[in-house]
Amino acid sequence: MQSKVYILYTGGTFGMKSTDAGLEPSSWDEIISYLPAIKNQTYFHYFSEINFTFDTLEPVVDSSDMTPETWKRIATRIVANYKDHDGFIILHGTDTLAYTSSALSFMLENLSKPVVLTGAQLPIFHPRTDGIVNLSNAIYIAGYKSFRIDCIPEVCICFNDDVLRGNRAVKTSTNDFEGFSSPNFDNLANLEQNIEVRTHLVYSPNTKALKLYTEFSERVVNVTVFPGYNTSVLIELVRSGKLEGIVLKTFGAGNLPTGKQWKTLVEACEEQETIILATTQCPNGQIELGQYASSNVLKSKAVVDGKDITPEAALTKLMWVIGNFDATKRCTMLAQNLRGEIS
């Protein structure tokens, strides 16, 4: 059975080439010359049943330059090609790949087809590149029909031999080929000699019409608590009315230093309807408000328990919820497990 797979090249290390000025993005035509299994399907029969559509998000960007507007452009391309393709591959830089995969998971409601993000730690032109393996593996997931494997109708990350839920993944290494991990959720699939899709973990295909939500609030901040943290500037920012949301990275299971300043911050958030999404700084585990007395200050209508959400998913979810829903719904939606991002 033939699969139709849409590949969108957005930039990043995958397609970088060496120039006098350093690594710079190259064109798709240059990249594909290094991918004979895709370019010459008559010789490399493994992908002969895949009908590819290649596209480039012009201008291509370094992943450090990703913005909510770029996420919107990517999601819009997916929606525009959704009816005519079985799966989608987004070639993306690794630095912000987990942010983009999280954002796309929230933007695309009722997804029934794989959206696979991948990239590389070494450019496709490098003799030891991991890009060829990563893209080949992504093709198997996106072109599942041709390979008679189970569909993964989610936004996911395919890197090395792992398939991770997109909003559960974090970048954990700048140089290892296994650059991403999913600290609080098992892999959706493993790609070794045999491809094992863990169907009990995968969302069932949705029969409802695909919906796209594209707005993100940029009036949010990431705050990491540290010993001696002074909340005065943050309180001033909240009282100014310029801040709509805070991802608060607490100690351990939701703990904060004792002192009036934190109570003052929470009260200011209540007055201004500024949401605090409470998370933990620990890569594994989750917060449990009330487990320790030092977390009781966060028991407030302005605070949402982030449970075991990743930093990338926490920020993008907060931005997305504030951007698309009115104040009466925001805390309820943040507390819900919308796309498998929390337990």
Describe the structure.
It is globular, with a radius of gyration of 21 Å. Helix content is 27%, strand content 22%. The chain folds into two domains: 3-212, 3-Layer(aba) Sandwich (Rossmann fold), CATH 3.40.50.1170; 220-335, Rossmann fold (3-Layer(aba) Sandwich). The longest helix has 14 residues, at 311-324. Helix 7 (232-239) packs parallel to helix 8 (260-272). The strands form five sheets. An eight-stranded mixed sheet has the order 4-1-5-7-8-9-12-13. It has a four-stranded parallel sheet with strand order 15-16-17-18, with helices on both faces. It has helices at residues 28-32, 36-39, 68-80, 97-107, 131-142, 144-147, 232-239, 260-272, 311-324, 327-335, and strands at residues 3-9, 16-19, 22-25, 50-56, 87-91, 108-109, 115-118, 155-159, 162-165, 170-171, 180-181, 189-191, 195-197, 211-212, 220-224, 245-250, 275-280, 303-305. The protein is α/β, with parallel strands linked by helices and 343 residues long.
- At CATH level 3, the topology of the largest domain is Rossmann fold
How does the overall form come out from the CA principal axes? globular
CATH superfamily of the largest domain: L-asparaginase, N-terminal domain
CATH top-level class of the largest domain: Alpha Beta
Structural class: alpha/beta
- Major beta sheet, strand line-up: 4-1-5-7-8-9-12-13
Q: What gyration radius follows from the Cα positions, in whole Å?
A: 21 Å
Order of helices and strands: EEEHHEHEHEEHHEEEEEEEEHEHEEHH
> pLDDT below 50 for ≥5 consecutive residues: which ranges?
none
| Proportion of beta-strand residues | 15-25%
> How many structural domains in the coordinates?
2
The total strand number stands at: 18
